[in-house]
């Protein structure tokens, strides 16, 4: 699987937004790869909504002002001031909950996912029951449209979940870059470096910093003066860098969890091995059989070394299959979301083009902000995908 940004943002035109009339108006809540937080709660809270209701957040006085994750104010624009706006009724509903009733967001997400799964399953069941009848063709068409509709909706749900995770660390997403470029210069403020780095473990953060240094060409220990120095970059290169950094954050999340699991297994096995060694020595002393040390000898040094292995060394030891397994996106919905979000972020609203060859001037600080945000996006997306798939079965990517 390869993510690319072309001049035109090509998205499936057949994917239509959810028709509000189909629902009860009131109801309860360049890096190439081959390719959750658990949400929930048993609190008995009911959220009522109208399918046509749209709750909005004020975009702010500046077109380039990032979205405010904590603001409850609204305007008639209906915009989150984020690059991508939800297109489905489910996405718009969660957008309203996110802005006005954030404490109920997890409950609303769980409710929406269960509803979407139920709608898709019902359509599939009707198709199965109509097999062999005159209505089979009709129900096949209905099931296909419902599946497409639910896919658009669940991608919106995933996007809102990622946006929620950013709000937890008080980091607003960078708005459309076309709003932030003035006279050929791009500047993103505030940097939010500390907040974006705070979500990663020490080992992951070391690899993130190395990635940032590699893609923007600035050492992590550079001075403030160097950080605010300017450089030129093509917009298309900037778009590729952002998409690649999302994938890298996704990859590191997967690899770090596998690393943690392997280390835990090694520690567990070492505990049993040390117990066997102690028992062996005790038996040897009592029976005066020296050769028992050949069985219960000092064979744990390699395992101890492996349990202390850094994430970077662990990843460098991957074979091709292991690397592909960690790097590959698991679902089509995650792939679609990355593509749609990258297109929305880098699309020029005036020309309708994405990531042109035009060169812009920007600071290394702004480049670092974009890369750190993208890596965090990939990390949050991995968690989101994991949770959503436990409620709403996502489509696996066919890698054949």
TrEMBL record:
Biased composition (Low complexity): 58-79
InterPro entries: At3g17800-like, DUF760
Pfam assignment, any one: DUF760
Record region (Disordered): 58-84
Record's protein name: UV-B-induced protein At3g17800, chloroplastic-like
Organism this protein belongs to: Linum tenue
Top-level taxonomy: Eukaryota, Viridiplantae, Streptophyta, Embryophyta, Tracheophyta
């Amino acid at each position: 699987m390869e993510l690319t940004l072309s001049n035109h943002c090509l998205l499936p035109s057949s994917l239509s937004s959810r028709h509000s009339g189909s629902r009860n108006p009131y109801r309860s809540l360049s890096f190439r790869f081959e390719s959750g937080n658990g949400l929930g709660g048993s609190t008995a809270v009911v959220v009522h909504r109208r399918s046509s209701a749209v709750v909005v957040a004020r975009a702010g006085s500046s077109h380039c002002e990032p979205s405010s994750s904590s603001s409850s104010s609204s305007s008639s624009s209906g915009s989150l001031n984020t690059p991508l706006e939800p297109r489905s009724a489910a996405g718009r509903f969660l957008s309203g909950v996110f802005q006005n009733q954030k404490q109920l967001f997890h409950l609303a997400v769980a409710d929406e996912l269960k509803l979407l799964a139920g709608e898709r399953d019902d359509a599939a069941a009707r198709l199965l029951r109509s097999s062999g009848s005159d209505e089979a063709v009709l129900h096949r068409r209905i099931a296909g449209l419902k599946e497409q509709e639910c896919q658009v909706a669940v991608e919106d749900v995933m996007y809102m979940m990622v946006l929620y995770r950013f709000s937890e660390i008080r980091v607003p997403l960078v708005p459309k870059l076309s709003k932030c470029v003035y006279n050929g210069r791009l500047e993103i403020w505030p940097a939010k470096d500390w907040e974006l780095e705070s979500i990663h473990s020490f080992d992951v953060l070391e690899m993130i910093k190395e990635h940032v240094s590699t893609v923007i060409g600035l050492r992590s220990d550079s001075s403030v003066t160097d950080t605010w120095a300017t450089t030129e970059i093509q917009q298309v290169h900037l778009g590729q860098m952002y998409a690649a950094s999302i994938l890298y954050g996704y990859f590191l999340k997967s690899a770090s969890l596998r690393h943690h699991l392997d280390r835990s297994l090694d520690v567990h096995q070492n505990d049993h091995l040390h117990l066997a060694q102690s028992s062996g020595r005790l038996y040897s002393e009592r029976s005066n059989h020296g050769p028992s040390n050949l069985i219960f000898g000092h064979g744990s040094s390699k395992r101890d070394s492996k349990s202390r292995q850094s994430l970077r060394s662990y990843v460098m030891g991957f074979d091709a299959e292991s690397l592909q397994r960690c790097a590959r996106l698991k679902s089509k919905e995650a792939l679609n979301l990355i593509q749609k979000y990258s297109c929305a972020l880098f699309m020029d609203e005036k020309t309708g083009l994405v990531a042109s060859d035009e060169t812009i001037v920007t600071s290394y600080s702004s480049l670092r902000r974009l890369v750190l945000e993208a890596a965090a996006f990939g990390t949050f997306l991995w968690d989101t995908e994991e949770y959503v798939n436990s409620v709403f079965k996502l489509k696996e990517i066919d890698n054949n």
